[in-house]
Amino acid sequence: MPKVPYLRLAIVSLAIGAVIAVLMIQIDWNGEAGSTAAGPIDALLDWMIIISSFVFAIVCVFLGYALYRWRVKPGDESDGLPIHGNTKLELTWTIIPTVIVLFAAGYSWAVLDDIEEVDSDPLIVNVYSQQFAWTFGYPTEGNKWSEGEFHVPVGRQVVFNMHAQDVLHSFWVPEWRIKKDNVPGITTDAVVTPDRVGTFQLICTELCGAGHSVMRAKVVVEPRKKFNRWVRGLEEEVPQGLYLTADQALEIQKQIQKAEGGIGGSGVDETTRDNVTQS
Amino acid sequence: MAHALREPGWYRAALGTLIGAAFGFGLVVILRLVSGLDAFQTEQTGYPQVIVPLITAPFGFLIGFGAFSYWFRWAAGKPTVPDDHSGHGATRWQDYFTFNTDHKVIGIQYIVTTFFFFFVGGLLAMLIRAELAQPGTQIVDPNVYNGLFSTHATVMIFLFIIPMFAGIANYVLPIMIGAPDMAFPRLNALSFWLLPIAGVIFMGSFLAPGGSFDAGWTGYAPLSTGAPLGQSFFNVGVQFAGASSIATSVNFLVTIITMRAPGMNLWRMPLLVWANLSTSLIVVGATPFIAGVQFMVLFDRIMGMNFFNFLEGGDVLSYQHIFWFYSHPAVYIMMLPGFGIISEVIATNARKPIFGYRLMALALLGIVVLSYSVWAHHMFVAGMFSWLRVPIMITTLLIAVPTGIKVFSWLGTLFYGKIHTYSTAMLFALGFIVTFTVGGISGVMLGMVPLDIHMSDTYFVVAHIHFVLFGGSVFTIFAGIYYWFPKMTGRMYDERLGRIHFWGTMIGTWGTFIPQHWIGLEGMPRRVADYASQFGEWNLVISFFSLILGLAQLVFLYNMVVSWKYGPKASGNPWRSKTIEWLVSSPPPTFNFDEIPRVVGGPYEYGTPGARHAIMGDEDAEATVPEPKPSSVPAAT
Ligand code: HEM
Ligand SMILES: [Cu+2]
Ligand SMILES: [Cu+2]
User: Fold this and answer.
1) ipTM
2) CA–CA distances in Å: residue B520 to residues A44, B135, B209, B515
């Protein structure tokens, strides 16, 4: 059997893989970073990009070499060598990928535990999403409410408790690398420690109807003092058009069905909003 | 006329459709009136007077068309009309519009129909890209836009990729295993005719008040349970497409298990047969789940059953669990048959046995088993119980191992081969290896929970699914169509146009879907009609390349249509392959074989002088047969 320069192919693959990897990790894939989770997540992605560069290079180099070496000349009707397999080689390409993916899983698990660890004194922010608007509540800051915009202090961990009032929505701030669906009927949560001052966008990432593309809110991360001032200036009254619990939503829906003229004419707006506190 | 209405056929089918529709409509109206309700119910989630006829009319059509005639006679104890096979084969184009039980006719019916839907879905994609070429709203309003991507995905998945593979296998698989037909020819024909019905229902949703279904192909509750009437068309259409899939896969299972030619033991089956065996195992197990969950949505909608109504104790997340318990395995339904096709094309065109044949078959079975255990990777950020994420991450990443084995084995097959890259089929197979690798890589990244938290529901996912579905499934479909085109039509296609098609598709695919990774990571969510202006340039680039991709498909269409009519005649075995379908004429005789062939060796015995896969019935039965080879000989290097 004619010799194949396997060693050289391997070196070429590694070299090309290294070049791709070095070029690829120059790019800031995930864009700007704005939370403590971004560091570990971006590092994890860089690792995966490096490993993947080598995988891609190996596939391309071996494919390219095969084509270069064994592409037939026109008129050659002969067959290739009757090789059916090679147990050692097959075991190798079963075991090495297994090790790689198990490494990826273990590393991911560690990162996951890291970014989801909850501090002793996080700020609680309630998130309420409905077609196609966001409302935020600050139960521990004197039961304050804000619509379409929320602020958080920089450097303090925030736990978001999320509620969807009608259909699924999803809470994503790309700079924070954190996303969580808001699910009607249950409360979901996400933990973020913003570490960069600035204005960001909250983007809805779960299809929720005609207004889905424009369902955004303004996110402001600011120094503690500024944040305190902002919170103090907020209203304590529950915002118009927001209902809080499933029971209330059900009640409202029943009333709508009963009363002609919909929610405005039914009077339930006022009654259900009496005495509600934040969950 | 009266006679035509009594005989099975299009006239009686039209009449049956009317009767079916009238029956369903009457049933609803009468029951409602009897119960003291208004005759019509026009809440957007209601319209029972439309939904029930939507289910009964297709049955009327099928009965009128003759799909059930044999079974009805049999059930009624009347003498059945034995099939005299006079309807087998197709001599005129009209023959393809009959209830034909010949697997080769059905195969062509499947392939042509699904390509039709490919172009329908492609047109919808072009509209999507036109709207997204620039930020802002130009062509369609957001509601219509949501309908566009929902119907695009639904048509491509349920009416193109899944049934296309069933169609290709329908044609070649029985011949490959030396069978005269599928095990259940009437069920086979029924499976096919359920598809156009599903297509009419999906497309019909555009006429429904409120527009077509627009909750995505995933149809998540509660958006879907509250959506306008079009959503019910989706729920019902999926039943027909799903029933078609299930019936076909039962047919394949029985055919593969019981109808292999003598001598074809499991380890002598071509990998396409292995692939369809594996796929069918997934379909029969998983497809009932999507059928069930779409019924649950339909019941929520028209009967107020509250499966997913959180206000009445329903559980919103359970929709996603049931849906993905089908739809993750479904992505392998869309990939495994393609793996099989690539194995055939590469073995033939590299003129070498598949490297590690047994491991290739076992990898398929490994994927079948694992595919049932990874569904929740679509729900890492869905708010499900958080402990499930890590185990699902591990199984998800492990599924990359058998997938990787396949890629490496194809490369191993090329080594020491005699590689023919002249045929477009082989170009698509090689292009598939590179392109699919990228899709696999992005899949592994998505499978890692911390990365998925950022990437989920962004354009990164859109990039992933198109690399695996276009660069994966669709490339394999093209490879298969080019490869078996001479067999199916008896004519050769034009390789030059094929190469233009290949390079257009390759450039179009990479140009369209690579940048989607980047804009996704930088913050562009999926399923949006409008986006932040910072993504404007890339979206214009993407739309430009998608146009190239679209135009390339027109070259394909032209090539196929013209070659089918005017192409040079093909020999029985233009690629000098060893599997049985190439040992018969092109196109094959009506009943495939005069005598069932005898299988005497592995399917890919290239390079071993005198080695054979099968001996055809008309050859000397005493033909000398070399000893079967051990399947694995160490490769000296
Ligand atoms: C290496 C193997 C693969 C892995 C590890 C993998 C992993 C994943 C993950 C984790 C997601 C969920 C992303 C999210 O929504 O956040 C996903 C989505 C998807 N994958 Fe894959 N994938 C693989 C191969 C494939 C193949 C072969 C196909 C089909 C031919 C496929 C089709 C899809 C589709 C259609 C979706 C999106 C579904 C939707 O939300 O609409 N994947 N994949
Ligand atoms: Cu949304
Ligand atoms: Cu999946």
Assistant:
1) 0.89
2) 17, 15, 34, 9
Mean pLDDT on B198-216: 93
H/E stretch holding A101 reads helix A87-116
Given this model, what pLDDT does residue A136 score?
Answer: 93
CATH of domain A123-233: 2.60.40.420
A166 neighbors B224 (Cβ within 8 angstroms): no
Of B49, B56, B60, whose CA–CA distance to B25 is shortest?
B49
First to last CA, chain B: 75
DSSP state of B1: -
Domain ranges of chain B: 2-69, 100-566
A interface test, pick of B225, B453, B631 with most A CB neighbours within 10 Å: B453
Task: Output the pTM of the full model.
Answer: 0.92
Up-side HSE of residue B126: CA atoms within 13 Å toward CB? Answer: 13
| B628 pLDDT tier (thresholds 50, 70, 90) | very low
Q: For residue A260, what pLDDT is reported?
A: 37
Residue nearest to atom 22 of ligand 1 (CA): B443
Q: How far is Cα A214 from Cα A203, in angstroms, rounded to an integer?
A: 8
Q: Which of B27, B28, B1 is nearest to B14 (CA)?
A: B1
Write down the pLDDT at residue A142. Answer: 86
Phi/psi at B615 (5° precision): -110, 125
Which residue, judged by its Cα, is nearest atom 19 of ligand 1? B465
Question: What Rg do the C-alpha atoms of chain B give, in angstroms?
Answer: 25
Are B451 and A48 in contact (CB < 8 Å)? Answer: yes
Distance of CA B541 to the CA centre of its chain: 29
Tens digits of per-residue pLDDT, B450-497?
999 999 999 999 999 999 999 999 999 999 999 999 999 999 999 999
Shortest alpha-carbon distance between residue B620 and chain A (Å): 25
Residue A66 or B632, more confident? A66
8 A C-beta contact, residue B384 and residue B376:
yes
Q: For the domain covering B100-566, report its CATH number.
A: 1.20.210.10
Regarding the beta carbon of B331 and ligand 1, being less than 6 Å apart is answered yes
Averaged pLDDT score across all residues of chain B: 91
Q: Where are the domains of chain A?
A: 6-68+86-115, 123-233
Ligand 1 in reach of B399 Cβ (< 6 A): yes
